[in-house]
Task: inverse folding
């Protein structure tokens, strides 16, 4: 399987990415793949990635990915989320995708760029869902359009403090009945030890207003209480070494999503070829003279 681009995140927003036979909700195992694209190569890269997912659709691949591009973050990135029921299912998917690559080699050869590589870097990561740290799993992913991705790295030996703070936050979310979906993943490999990922899907950027300080309004603050707020602050200060937040928009034409998503919103998710950007017209000789 061609690797894409890695994204380290602390909370995998409880995206209801469904796998075969799994009830709606965040998948037990998540592969996060990140591609760093060379400057000026995003448009041709998108055409090739779109051709790839259309070949998977032609092959009726049972394995799906959600593509995301930055709204706030590195502009030359593409991130893919792959959902799996288990590590065994992940291993089998690699073999399935390799087989599709062999069967449809002629299709891939026609669409793949033969010149300079579009990528400046590629990296992937595997993470396992932490249901005990997550909240309100099943989100309406078919109608979601954005993802808030937070990457948190915990200091060695301080995982228990970090997880205690998360559990206090989750309990306050539950008590206040916060209208949010949040999946927390712990990274198994592909980046520094002690990395957690939080992904929170949004239907619109208006939902970003709810996470600004103070987050989630009075009901949530009351549920935390002054003591809970202070405890979270102290535990987080002691345990967190690094915290990064990015916001991504979904890219349906680089994604290969579940049939249920397409059926729920075909106008958004239906695959179609990505047309080349229109060529820039050359200025006339007279126009050039005027500029000079």
Result:
């Amino acid at each position: 399987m061609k690797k894409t681009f890695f994204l380290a995140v602390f909370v995998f927003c409880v995206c209801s990415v469904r796998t075969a036979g799994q009830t709606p909700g965040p998948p037990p195992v998540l592969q996060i793949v990140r591609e760093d694209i060379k400057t000026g190569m995003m448009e041709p890269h998108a055409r090739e990635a779109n051709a790839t997912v259309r070949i998977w659709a032609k092959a009726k691949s049972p394995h799906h990915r959600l593509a995301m591009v930055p709204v706030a973050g590195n502009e030359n990135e593409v991130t893919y989320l792959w959902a799996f029921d288990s590590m065994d299912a992940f291993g089998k998917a690699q073999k399935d995708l390799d087989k599709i690559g062999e069967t449809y080699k002629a299709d891939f050869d026609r669409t793949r760029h033969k010149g300079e590589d579009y990528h400046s870097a590629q990296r992937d990561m595997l993470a396992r869902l932490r249901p005990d740290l997550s909240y309100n799993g099943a989100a309406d992913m078919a109608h979601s359009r954005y993802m808030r991705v937070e990457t948190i790295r915990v200091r060695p030996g301080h995982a228990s403090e970090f997880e205690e703070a998360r559990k206090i936050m989750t309990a306050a979310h539950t008590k206040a009945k916060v209208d949010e979906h949040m999946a927390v993943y712990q990274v198994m490999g592909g980046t520094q030890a002690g990395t957690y990922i939080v992904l929170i899907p949004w239907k619109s950027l208006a939902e970003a207003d709810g996470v600004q300080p103070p987050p989630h309004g009075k009901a949530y603050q009351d549920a935390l209480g002054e003591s809970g707020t202070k405890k979270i602050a102290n535990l987080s200060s002691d345990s967190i070494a690094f915290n990064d937040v990015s916001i991504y928009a979904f890219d349906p034409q680089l994604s290969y999503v579940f049939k249920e998503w397409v059926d729920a919103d075909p106008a958004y998710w239906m695959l179609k070829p990505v047309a080349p950007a229109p060529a820039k017209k050359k200025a006339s000789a007279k126009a050039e003279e005027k500029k000079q």
Q: What stands out?
A: The mean pLDDT is 86. The helical segments are 42-58, 87-103, 105-111, 159-176, 217-239, 259-264, 266-269, 285-291. The chain is about 35% helix and 25% strand.
